[in-house]
Inverse folding.
């Protein structure tokens, strides 16, 4: 018999999107923001089973040091696995049964979104929200049409995130272009734009809202340290 | 007519593999043949997403041997064809690439190096230099571009098709797992809008007319009965190759002509070498940077000039001396002392190169 534990209302967010859209960066920053806002218990879960050893693993210790629960492989766990190591950590499979807020970093694309099927309790969790991270500087998701078609391929999506940037070459106009295109796509899809994410160096110049009135989330780049 | 994959010049943010797929599409490549292997998989993934949109083709074969031979076959049918692979896949493709050398087929292959020997690691290495340049049972009649940035991956993937079809030697874009997976911005463009004309393709077989009457017969061979016959063919090939070499050889350098110590590196490692040299130059060190972009054929004259003017030449690479061997062959008899800095299969940072260079003064 299944034991149902009522953990109550909390933040449960899954970040999905195109390969190299910035899912992990947005997820990591969201978890840290919640920590800074005073949420007592936050778990950041690496559910990327395509490249599980390369996403959060290199920065895991750093994030744990900040006070996050990080459910990801350790380097020592992955030694000896070779290419056969694409397995789901048992602890990650049960992540939704943990107390506190849960931030899920999910593998890329349609196949990545299916990873949610492996998560115990994903179907029944009313708090679980799925956000698609989008960067219009990525040619596969550069237009309203591209984005609408892409998001429709995914199962159920609760909101879009404009994460438009050009790495070290980012400038404000392209972020605002991203805001316009992502907002228009969101309107077509009938879902909200949750935020525009901007590196902290530029976030101040834009202010608390982008040109379309979406909330600006300031982001620190942690992922360059992780190589992948 | 289907629309062009890249219309106006545009700054974009991509992974290296994605860049290769878009570059091939922009270069009017018609078909990719391939078999999956990390870290080149996303070249196939993105190509198969672009192909139906822009009326291009893709064939996934049963292994890399087959992917290499079908690429050769596509080219014989007159298609601007390419493949991509890595590590053990590159080993299997050496037989088709040898055939391409024998029959002067302009195959284009993107190699994303991974660690070796054998299956080893899935991410990064520079250990496919010897194999990509000199693999197969031939004379290394190939062109190998070693890229260091996403912009170069785009530029040289386009260029590879033109070099291959102009000179009819197998041509390679040699990168690695870091470049494949790394993200950075670049400008994508339509080559024709930049005045880069794509060299036209033509079928080797199935041409119109009666062979020997209306046109010369096509006689494309990878096998000979007698040694003399092979020798005559190879003499011509080698003459063609040597004539071509100075036309295609490319390099990048910073202050290498009047430096006491020059660092030679290629590919992604040259990003670290360049950073180290620029930092030390600021501090007043007489240090130079040289990077062959074509590791086959090498820019021989420039390399010999450096090896005669500098006191020391340090070769830095993520391999145990594979570039070093190619360089040493060319600098035979020159004055500079050759210093090795090899880390097979792992990355090399700017700081490491910098501190090693300081020890040489």
């Amino acid at each position: 018999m299944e034991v149902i534990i009522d953990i109550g209302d909390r933040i449960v967010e899954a970040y999905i999107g195109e390969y190299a859209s910035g899912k992990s960066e947005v997820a990591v920053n969201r978890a840290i923001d919640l920590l800074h806002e005073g949420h007592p218990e936050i778990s950041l879960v690496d559910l990327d089973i395509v490249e599980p050893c390369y996403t959060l693993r290199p920065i895991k210790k750093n994030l744990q040091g900040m006070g996050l629960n990080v459910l990801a492989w350790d380097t020592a766990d992955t030694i000896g696995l070779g290419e056969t190591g694409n397995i789901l950590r048992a602890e990650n499979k049960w992540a939704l049964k943990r107390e506190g807020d849960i931030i899920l970093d999910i593998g890329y694309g349609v196949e990545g979104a299916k990873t949610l099927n492996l998560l115990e309790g994903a179907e029944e969790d009313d708090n679980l929200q799925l956000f698609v991270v989008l960067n219009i500087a990525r040619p596969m998701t550069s237009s309203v049409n591209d984005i609408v078609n892409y998001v429709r391929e995914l199962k159920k999506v609760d909101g879009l995130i404009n994460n438009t940037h050009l790495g070290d070459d980012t400038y404000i106009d392209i972020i605002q272009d991203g805001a316009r295109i992502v907002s228009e796509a969101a309107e077509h899809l009938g879902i909200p734009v949750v935020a525009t994410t901007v590196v902290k160096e530029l976030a101040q110049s834009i202010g608390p809202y982008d040109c379309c009135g979406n909330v600006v989330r300031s982001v620190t780049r942690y992922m360059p340290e992780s190589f992948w | 007519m289907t629309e062009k994959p890249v219309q106006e010049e545009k700054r974009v943010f991509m992974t290296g593999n994605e860049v290769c797929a878009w570059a091939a599409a922009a270069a009017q490549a018609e078909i990719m043949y391939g078999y999956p292997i990390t870290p080149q998989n996303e070249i196939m993934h993105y190509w198969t997403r672009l192909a139906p949109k822009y009326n291009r083709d893709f064939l996934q074969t049963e292994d890399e041997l087959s992917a290499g031979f079908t690429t050769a076959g596509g080219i014989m049918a007159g298609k601007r064809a390419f493949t991509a692979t890595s590590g053990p896949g590159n080993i299997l493709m050496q037989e088709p690439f040898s055939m391409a050398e024998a029959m002067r087929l302009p195959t284009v292959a993107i190699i994303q190096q991974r660690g070796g020997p054998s299956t080893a690691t899935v991410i990064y290495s520079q250990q496919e230099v010897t194999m990509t340049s000199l693999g197969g049972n031939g004379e290394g009649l190939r062109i190998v571009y070693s890229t260091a940035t996403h912009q170069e991956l785009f530029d040289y993937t386009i260029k590879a098709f033109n070099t291959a079809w102009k000179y009819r030697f197998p041509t390679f874009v040699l990168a690695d797992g870091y470049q494949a997976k790394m993200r950075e911005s670049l400008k994508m463009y339509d080559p024709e809008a930049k005045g880069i004309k794509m060299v036209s393709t033509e079928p080797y077989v199935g041409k119109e007319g009666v062979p020997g009457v209306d046109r010369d017969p096509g006689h494309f061979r990878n096998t000979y009965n007698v040694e003399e016959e092979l020798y005559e063919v190879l003499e011509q090939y080698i003459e063609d190759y040597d004539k071509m070499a100075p036309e295609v050889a490319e390099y990048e350098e910073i202050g290498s002509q009047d430096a006491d110590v020059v660092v030679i590196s290629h590919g992604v490692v040259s990003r670290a070498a360049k950073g180290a040299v620029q930092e030390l130059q600021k501090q007043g060190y007489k240090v130079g940077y040289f990077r062959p972009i074509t590791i086959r054929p090498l820019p021989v004259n420039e390399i010999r000039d450096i090896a005669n003017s500098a006191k020391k030449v340090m070769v830095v690479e993520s391999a145990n001396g594979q570039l070093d061997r190619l360089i040493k062959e060319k600098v035979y008899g020159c004055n500079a002392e050759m210093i090795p800095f090899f880390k097979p299969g792992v990355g090399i940072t700017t700081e490491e190169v910098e501190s090693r260079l300081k020890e040489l003064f």
User: Anything to note?
Assistant: The radius of gyration of chain A is 17 Å. Helices of chain A lie at 23-36, 60-66, 75-78, 90-93, 109-113, 144-153, 172-189, 200-206. Chain A has a mean pLDDT of 87.
